[in-house]
């Protein structure tokens, strides 16, 4: 309880003051800090970290007129307060309902709704989803929103990125951005980033128009290879056609036969991924063309049929 | 329930104080429900508030709290008269939620959500177009009909392909909820054919007919659980080449260990034979069965021959 009281009083004092307050003065003004200098410092540093982590913007400035120079602290009111979004009741209710249905991790989004006012939603949604959380989601969304370059370690390599967009696809979070060392736009899986993302100062780059369309970040696996693109046609039997209709875009469906089977035409640059796709239909689908991909599938199956193994 | 940390309590109070001050007096019960805490916790935290303020901490600079007659009255709350700005993490949660619901066709037809989301994003300085949320592959038409059936409590007739057993069946289902998990949509409902609660993958639904019959009410304790291996499911041990290691990242397994030659030895519970057939033909020579019940030992070779027959190459 004592710590709770101290954190609230520290916040109140820092918000109330117009001038930056040095640590020594805060120690006098905020009740509940320990007596000894060392213990005070430790508590004060931890309090600042705790408050910053929950989004309280504590700023450090040099105290005017102090000699030698001393750090002072304050919370600028314009950065602390939530600007009123001016939500109508139906808009707030819709957001409440959405946040109740879809949440990331343990649901800080619902906590966010505390701050927006309104009452608890009275209806429940027909749908629900829990998206996995990731410790770098917050910092990366800040970087994307404020156009701040980021640095992180990815597959044991250091990357410097101008981050453009975040996306949740195929059950995972992805970041899309301009990789400065490779001078190319790349997509990164958040769960493969090692450790914490470092966020640089804001406003350092512009986001190209094509990167603000809200579309998908990751193409289908069979389009992610490096081989020359080939158009492949896959025949899917009638009883499995509904699955194909859910899996492929409507423009990929090139024929619907009277018996209910359908033909799909897709561009393939990763033949292995395409083989796995065809095999996910077991014997309910058939590669029609190109002939090489059909032949590769047959020889793959023949190796399995005779029990061949990859050498260790 | 774990004891809330001081940080959680501060966050809650920084939102609670302006909310209470704006509508004070507020019934205790209403405040508890709104912030998801019990009365004891609320009273304890309100007790702390009366010791919060700015120097010299005289009565006119401390928050004034009164909780008599089951009503909460708050005064002198400055500088906490307005809520704290949201963190980027909180903002992303709301944006992702708003973007996901729009992904569900028909879920937001008159669009107050999109208006609200746009206003909120503006106030927070974020752009919803920079966040894409794809909850799962499914046909709009199927999601639409099933959402409608759940919302109106109507029974459905489901033409469904059970991937694990490689068979298509028609069954009557009382639809309770649609759940998106790891890239797929599922319908949870009471299946009248198996007389049990079942999950149906929506991208395996070939057809939905919404019947003019009322469905039973969903159970109160409806919880989403991922596949849990049954104790009767056969176990299979595989050695995986390094290129097939993704199997342990993507599938629940019983045990996994690195072998000295770089392979991974993994033991899986096989709840559905067709699922295992797919895994074997996709992995091919990259997987070797080390231990399996007799009926599964040569499943890979048998499945490969069955598919080869289709290509006229068996």
Describe this structure in words.
The complex is a heterodimer of chains A (312) and B (314). Chain A is an alpha+beta fold and 312 residues long. Chain A folds into 4 domains: 3-80, Orthogonal Bundle (Arc Repressor Mutant, subunit A); 83-131, no CATH class; 134-218, SH3 type barrels (Roll), CATH 2.30.30; 230-305, 2-Layer Sandwich (Alpha-Beta Plaits). Chain A has helices at 2-16, 23-29, 37-53, 77-80, 89-101, 108-116, 137-146, 241-247, 271-279, 291-305; strands at 21-22, 59-62, 71-74, 102-104, 127-131, 150-154, 157-169, 172-179, 184-189, 193-199, 230-236, 253-256, 262-268, 285-289. The longest helix of chain A has 17 residues, at 37-53. Chain A is elongated. In chain A, 35% of the residues are buried. With 314 residues, chain B is of the alpha+beta class. In chain B, 35% of the residues lie in helices and 26% in strands. Chain B has a 5-stranded antiparallel sheet. The longest helix of chain B is centred in the first third of the chain and has 18 residues, at 6-23. Chain B is elongated. The chains are: A alpha+beta (312), B alpha+beta (314). The interface between A and B is large, with 119 and 125 residues. β7 of chain A pairs parallel with β4 of chain B, so a sheet runs across the interface.
């Amino acid at each position: 309880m004592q710590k709770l009281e101290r954190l609230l009083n520290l916040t109140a004092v820092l918000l109330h003051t117009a001038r930056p307050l040095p640590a020594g003065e805060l120690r006098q003004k905020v009740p509940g800090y320990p007596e000894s200098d060392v213990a005070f410092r430790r508590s004060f540093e931890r309090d600042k970290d705790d408050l910053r982590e929950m989004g309280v913007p504590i700023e450090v400035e040099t105290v005017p007129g102090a000699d030698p120079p001393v750090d002072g602290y304050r919370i600028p009111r314009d950065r602390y307060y939530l600007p009123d979004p001016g939500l109508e009741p139906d808009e707030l209710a819709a957001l409440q309902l959405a946040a109740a249905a879809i949440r990331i991790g343990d649901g800080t989004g619902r906590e966010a709704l505390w701050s927006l006012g309104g009452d608890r939603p009275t209806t429940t949604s027909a749908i629900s989803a829990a998206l996995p959380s990731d410790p770098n989601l917050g910092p990366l969304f800040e970087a994307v929103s404020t156009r701040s370059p980021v640095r992180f370690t990815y597959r044991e390599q250091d990357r410097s990125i101008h981050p453009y967009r975040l996306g949740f696809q195929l059950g995972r979070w992805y970041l899309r951005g301009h990789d400065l060392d490779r001078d190319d736009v790349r997509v990164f899986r958040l769960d493969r980033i090692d450790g914490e993302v470092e966020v640089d100062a804001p406003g350092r780059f512009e986001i190209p128009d094509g990167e603000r369309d809200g579309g998908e970040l990751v193409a289908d696996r069979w389009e992610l290879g490096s081989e020359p693109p080939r158009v492949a046609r896959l025949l899917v039997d009638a009883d499995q056609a509904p699955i194909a209709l859910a899996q492929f875009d409507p423009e990929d469906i090139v024929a619907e036969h009277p018996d209910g089977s359908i033909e799909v035409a897709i561009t393939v640059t990763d033949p292995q991924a395409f083989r796995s796709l065809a095999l996910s239909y077991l014997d309910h689908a058939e590669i029609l063309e190109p002939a090489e991909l059909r032949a590769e599938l047959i020889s793959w199956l023949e190796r399995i049929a005779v029990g061949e193994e990859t050498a260790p | 329930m774990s004891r809330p940390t001081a940080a959680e309590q501060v966050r809650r109070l920084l939102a609670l104080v302006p909310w209470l001050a704006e509508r004070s007096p507020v019934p205790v019960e209403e405040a508890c429900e709104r912030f998801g805490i019990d009365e004891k916790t609320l009273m304890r935290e309100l007790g702390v508030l009366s010791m919060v303020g700015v120097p010299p901490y005289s009565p006119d600079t401390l928050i004034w709290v009164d909780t008599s007659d089951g009503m909460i009255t708050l005064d002198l709350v400055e500088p906490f008269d307005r809520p704290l700005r949201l963190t980027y993490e909180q903002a992303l949660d709301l944006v992702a939620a708003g973007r996901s619901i729009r992904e569900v066709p028909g879920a937001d037809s008159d669009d107050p959500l999109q208006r609200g989301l746009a206003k909120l994003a503006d106030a927070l300085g974020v752009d919803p177009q920079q966040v894409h949320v794809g909850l799962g592959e499914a046909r709009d038409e199927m999601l639409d009909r099933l959402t409608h059936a759940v919302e109106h409590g109507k029974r459905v007739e489901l033409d469904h392909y059970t991937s694990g057993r490689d068979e298509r069946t028609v069954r009557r289902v009382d639809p309770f909820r649609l759940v998106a998990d790891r890239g797929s949509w599922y319908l949870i409902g009471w299946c009248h054919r198996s007389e049990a609660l079942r999950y149906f993958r929506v991208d395996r639904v070939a057809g939905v007919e919404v019947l003019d019959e009322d469905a039973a009410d969903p159970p109160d304790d409806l919880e989403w659980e991922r596949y849990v291996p049954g104790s009767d499911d056969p176990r299979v041990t595989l050695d995986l080449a390094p290129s097939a290691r993704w199997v342990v990242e993507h599938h629940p397994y019983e045990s996994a260990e690195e072998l000295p030659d770089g392979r991974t030895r993994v033991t899986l519970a096989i709840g559905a034979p067709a699922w295992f057939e797919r895994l074997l033909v996709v992995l091919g020579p990259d997987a070797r069965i080390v231990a399996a019940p007799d009926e599964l030992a040569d499943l890979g070779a048998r499945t490969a021959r069955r598919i080869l027959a289709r290509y006229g190459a068996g």
